[in-house]
Amino acid sequence: MESSQLSERARGALPGGVSHELRYRAPHPIYIDRALGAEKWDVEGRRYIDFKMGSASQILGHNHPAIVDAVKEQASRALFTADCHRQEIEWAEWVNQLYPSAERTRFTASGSEATMLAIRLGRAFSGKDRVLRIDGHYHGWHDHVMKGAKPGNEQPTSLGVPAAVSDLIDLCDADPQALASALQDADIGTVILEASGANYGCVPLATDRLQALHDVARDAGVVLIFDEIITGFRWAPGGRQARDGIVPDLTTLAKVLTGGLPGGGVCGRADIMELMNNAESREGLSPPVSHKGTFNGSPLIAAAACAAMPLLATGEVQRRANDMAALMRDGMNETLVELDIEGLAYGDSSIFHLYFGRRDLQGMSAAEIRGLPAAQVKAYRDGMLSRGVDMMAYTSGLTSAAHTPELIGEALEAFRQTMADMRDKGLFP
Ligand SMILES: Cc1ncc(COP(=O)(O)O)c(C=O)c1O
Q1: Which residues line ligand 1 (CB under 6 A)?
Q2: Mean pLDDT of 355-376
Q3: How far apart are CA 17 and CA 20, in angstroms?
C-alpha cells in the first residue's frame, strides 16, 4: 500500500494518523519500510539520506551490526522477565564511569520519564516544590515541563496541564543575571536546562554562558539538572559536561544511552540518587522517593546499550559524526553565499541548524530564532524531502558515524536546488 493510502487508513486507527504529533506532515507522512547506515527507504522503495536518525538516537547509524546481534542474542534468552539482571549493572557502570556527575544511575522507559524523575528528585532533595526552567528548552511532554516549552510564551503547550502544576514552574532566559535574579526567590529548589541550548542548540548556549548559569545555580544552592538527552554520548562520550568540564548535580539521558532503543535514565550525585534506595535506608520498604516502571532497564535494551557503550566510549564515533556535520554546515553556508541568500548554517557537535534572514544570531531571543515563517520552514523541509533528504525538525538535522562525504555531497546538491527553488518562488523577501 502506498504512503497516501496508509495515511488515510491510519487516520481511522490513530489520532491524527500518528503515534507522535511531530510525525505528521502534510499532505501525508512518509512510511518507512527499512533503514541501513545513514539511509532509509519508504514503502514505495524511495530512498532518503537521513538527517533525523531516529530523532537523534542512532548515532552509530541504522542497524549497526553490534546492536542487532546483541538484541538477537538477548531475545533468544529472555525478552523480559521484570527481574534484576547482569547487564543493567554493566550499563550503569559505563554511565557512572563516563559522566562526571554520575555516582549512581537509574534507568527509565523514556526521556520524558527521565526528566520527570529528575525533577521529583530535585524537589525531594531540596524540599521545595518550585522549579525553574529556561525559556524554550525542551524536556519532553509531561505536565511539569509544558510551560515554557514554546519560547516567549508562558502558556503550557497542551490543554490538560493543571494550572496548579504550571504555577510551580518558573521561567527565565538563558542569561546568568536573569537566573540570579529569579533565584533570589528562596522557594525555588531545582533548576533544569537543556545542555545544548534550546532545541538541541537551535538557540545556542555558549560554553562560558553555560558555565555562568552553573555558577549562579551553585551559589544559590539549588539542585541543578542538565538535560543531556540530546548531548549525551553525542557531544562527547561523557556528554557536554565531560567535554566542557561543567558538572551538574543530576543528568538526564536517553536516545543514544540505550543503544538507540526505547528508554532513558537519570544519573547523579549519590546523596540525591540514594533517595531511591530501599535496600538500606528503609529495610526493603518504600524508599523516600518512589520510582517504578515495568520496563525500566529491560534486558533487551540493556543488551543493546552494553553493545553500544564500548563503541561510544572511544570518541571515534562522535568525531566521525562531527566531521560530517561540519562538512554539511560549511557546504550550506557556501551555497547561501553563492546564491546570495541571507542565512546561516550553524550548530555544535554533529548537529546543524539553518536560519534565514541573517548571517549571525547575536542578540537574538529564543522566540526570534524559533520564529521563522511557517511557509519558509515547510518549503525547506518539503524541498529537501522531495529530493530524497529527510531532516529532523524545524530547520535542523543530525549526522551519525555512518554518514559519508559522498552522502553529504549528495545532500548539499539537494540543498542547493532547494534554496534556488525557494529563492525563485520569492520565499526570501
Ligand atoms: C532534550 C530532550 N529532553 C527530553 C526529551 C524527551 O525524551 P522522550 O522523547 O524519549 O520522551 C527529548 C526528546 O526529544 C529531548 O530532546
Answers
A1: 55, 110-112, 115, 138-140, 194, 227, 229-230, 254, 264
A2: 94
A3: 9
